Amino acid sequence: MSKRVTYLDYIRQSVKQLVEKYKTNDPYRLAQEMGIDVDEFPFRRIKGLILEIAGKVTIVLNSNLPAWLKRVILAHELGHRQLSPRGAGYFFLAEHTLMESRVEYEANRFTVELITWDEKPELNETLEQFAARVGLPVDMMRYKVIK
């Protein structure tokens, strides 16, 4: 009898496959291992985007962001690549909408799963403390499913 894979399991399974294959959950090391170039540009509004040109994939991060946030954005863009690779080149400015699209939700779930891989809140650790310890904005913790 086959086990039914839920929507959330699919995202977690995708992260698990990457982490096990490349032996890391570090977004920069993953990008390097996957043959994805990471570059920076001083965008005004865009935090990051992923492009595929002539078969070469590049993730471009906003150079004006702090290092911890670049790491989060890189994980998010890797999520887009892993979960919907045909969508490369697509980016979405969430600040200008009232609703979160499915692809953005998936990439955010992927980000949180990747960055918090093998991490759980410590005894008496608040959600804010846990988010700070793992390097995520506290508002992204709503994507974390703690088992």
Structure description:
This protein has 147 residues and is α+β, with helices and mostly antiparallel strands. It has a single domain (7-143), classed as Arc Repressor Mutant, subunit A (Orthogonal Bundle). 42% of the residues lie in helices and 12% in strands. It contains five helices and three strands, in the order H-H-E-E-E-H-H-H. It has helices spanning 7-22, 27-33, 67-83, 102-115, 127-134, and strands spanning 37-41, 48-53, 56-62. Strands 1-3-2 form a three-stranded mixed β-sheet. Helix 2 (27-33) packs across helix 3. The longest helix has 17 residues, at 67-83. The protein is globular, with a radius of gyration of 15 Å.
List keywords for this structure.
single chain; 147 residues; alpha+beta; Arc Repressor Mutant, subunit A; three-stranded mixed beta sheet; 5 helices; 3 strands; 42% helix; globular
Write the layout of secondary structure elements.
Blueprint: H1 7-22, H2 27-33, E1 37-41, E2 48-53, E3 56-62, H3 67-83, H4 102-115, H5 127-134
Parallel strand pairs: 1-3
Antiparallel strand pairs: 2-3
Helix pairs in contact: 1-4, 2-3, 3-4
- Tell me the helix content: 40-55%
Helix and strand content put the structural class at alpha+beta
Number of domains: 1
Ends distance: 24 Å
CATH class equals Mainly Alpha
Low-confidence stretches: 88-96
Rg value: 15 Å
Strand count = 3
Question: What letter string, H or E per element, gives the SSE order?
Answer: HHEEEHHH
Number of helices: 5
Percent range for β-strand residues = 5-15%
Q: What fold name goes in the CATH topology slot?
A: Arc Repressor Mutant, subunit A
CATH architecture: Orthogonal Bundle
